[in-house]
Every structure is written in C-alpha cells, then in structure tokens.
C-alpha cells in the first residue's frame, strides 16, 4: 500500500512538471525524460511510454477550457439554435493543415523514435540548439514589426510552415513542440501572442491523436494502480496548465522569449555533464 502511494505521489510531481513545461517553450517531454532518470516510476516500460504522452492530454484540456470561445465552431443565435461560425471553421482548417506533417511522421516513425531517440543525450543537445535558436530569432526580430498580428491574418502557407517546424519536435525529444512552432511563427513574421495561441490550438488535435495512438497500442488494459497514476498525473497537469497558460500570455505582452532560450542552454549543459559523469563513474 505504501509503495502504491509513493507511485501516485510521483505521478503528481510528473503532472506538475508536465503542466509547467508543456506550455513554456522548454520541452515537456525532455523534462519528463530527465525526471524519469532521477526518479523513475515503478511501472512497465509499455505503461511508461504511454504515460509520457497521455499525461499531456490533461494539459491540452486546459486549452479547451480557457479558449472555448475562440475554438468552439458554433454559436447560439437569438432563436437558441447553434449555428456555425465561419471564422472559427477557417481557423480549424488552418490547424488541420499544420497538423498533417507531424501526424504523418508520428504514424510512420512512432516506435522507431521511442526506441532510438528518447534518451538524455538527445534531449540535452536539442535543449541547447533550440535555446540558441530562440536567442538568435529574437535578436533578429528585435526591431521588426510582425506582419501577422491576428489569428485571422495567419495564412494557410503560414500554418503549413509552422506545422513543418512541429515535425522537428515530433522526431527529436527535447526540442519542445511549443518551442519549435513558436520559433517557426516568429521566423515568418508572426507576433509572439499569435504564435503562442496557434501553438496552443495546434496541440489539441496533435495530442488527442498521439494519446489515442498510445492508448490503442497499450490496449486500454490498466491495473487499478496504473489507472490512478495516469488519472492523478492528468488532473494535476490540467490544473497547473491553467495557471501557466495565463502566466505565459501575460508575460509575452511585455517580454520576449530569450529567457527561455538561456534556460534551455543552461539546462542542456547541466544534463550533458550529468550523463558524462554518470558514464565515467
């Protein structure tokens, strides 16, 4: 009983880390892998592989709650009937376009990526490289005025380019899905706020699809302990995400993303040193 409670407490900690890092461009999967290196959960490898992805669904539901008015494609009219909202349907069509590249790669390479790239070394390298990219792009854009400052102004071409940047995160853990898509947006002239919001919305179909894929592979056959581990992790990630999303959208009104770039570089160096020392001793 005590051992089971320890595993549930671990899942709560994982939920906190997921809720914070899913939306800040610092790589949620990277942090989860690193946390697992320090404090592994006493679960099967198949459950861990599924948990690592499905816990993100809790964080995604926070977006659905906070942005319901911007993403729900129906409105109630004066007669009390729900009617479609054209602008939101157009937004969802752009989200679909941006989703296609990562969806294709995920379906084709999911097992190979798990087997070969989900490790601390890849995470550390990508933490550093994307951190450098953030600093470079923000310095380059310092005196530039964004050409896209509303979601409606985002073109299908812009959406596809952002979706292609998401492929990097789908393949290389430590890249950060939000980080790579935000960088993609900034590079083509999208404002920070629009890049962040589009990244939030893009996560909805991507993570629902990825979670369903992992659940199907796992088989939906949970023990009671596994069910509680997953449930607590998702609920905590959901609650923490609500506060973090609000913080991030407030923060970027007055600040750029360079602080996250420096954080990623520092963390990546620490991780590299950690694994080199462990390999020696």
TrEMBL record:
Q: How does it sit in the membrane?
A: Multi-pass membrane protein
One GO BP annotation of this record: cell wall organization
Q: What is its EC number?
A: 3.6.1.27
The source's domain of life comes to Bacteria
Can you state which reaction this protein catalyses? di-trans,octa-cis-undecaprenyl diphosphate + H2O = di-trans,octa-cis-undecaprenyl phosphate + phosphate + H(+)
Q: Which UniProt keywords apply?
A: Antibiotic resistance, Cell membrane, Cell shape, Cell wall biogenesis/degradation, Hydrolase, Membrane, Peptidoglycan synthesis, Transmembrane, Transmembrane helix
Name the family: Belongs to the UppP family.
Q: What does this protein do?
A: Catalyzes the dephosphorylation of undecaprenyl diphosphate (UPP). Confers resistance to bacitracin.
Put simply, this protein is called Undecaprenyl-diphosphatase
- Name of the encoding gene: uppP
């Amino acid at each position: 009983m005590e051992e089971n409670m320890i595993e549930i407490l671990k899942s709560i900690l994982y939920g906190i880390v997921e809720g914070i890092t899913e939306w800040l461009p610092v790589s949620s999967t990277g942090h989860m892998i690193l946390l697992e290196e320090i404090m592994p959960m006493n679960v099967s490898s198949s459950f861990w592989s599924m948990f690592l992805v499905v816990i993100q669904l809790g964080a995604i539901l926070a977006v659905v709650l906070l942005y319901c008015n911007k993403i729900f494609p129906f409105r109630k009219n004066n007669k009390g009937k729900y009617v479609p909202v054209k602008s939101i349907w157009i937004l969802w069509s752009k989200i679909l376009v941006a989703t296609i590249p990562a969806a294709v790669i995920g379906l084709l390479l999911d097992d190979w990526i798990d087997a070969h790239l989900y490790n601390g070394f890849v995470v550390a390298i990508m933490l550093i490289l994307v951190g450098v990219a953030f600093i470079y792009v923000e310095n380059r854009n310092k005196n530039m005025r964004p050409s896209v400052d509303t979601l409606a102004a985002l073109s299908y071409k812009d959406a596809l380019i952002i979706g292609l940047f998401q492929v990097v995160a789908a393949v290389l853990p430590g890249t950060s899905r939000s980080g790579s898509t935000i960088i993609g947006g900034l590079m083509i002239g999208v404002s920070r706020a629009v890049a962040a919001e589009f990244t939030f919305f893009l996560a909805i179909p991507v993570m629902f699809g990825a979670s369903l894929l992992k659940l199907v592979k796992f088989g939906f056959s949970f023990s009671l302990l596994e069910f509680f581990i997953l449930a607590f992790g998702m609920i905590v990630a959901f609650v923490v995400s609500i506060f973090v999303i609000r913080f991030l959208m407030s923060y970027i009104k007055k600040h750029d993303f360079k602080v996250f770039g420096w954080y990623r570089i520092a963390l990546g160096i620490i991780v590299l040193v950690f694994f080199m020392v462990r390999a020696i001793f």
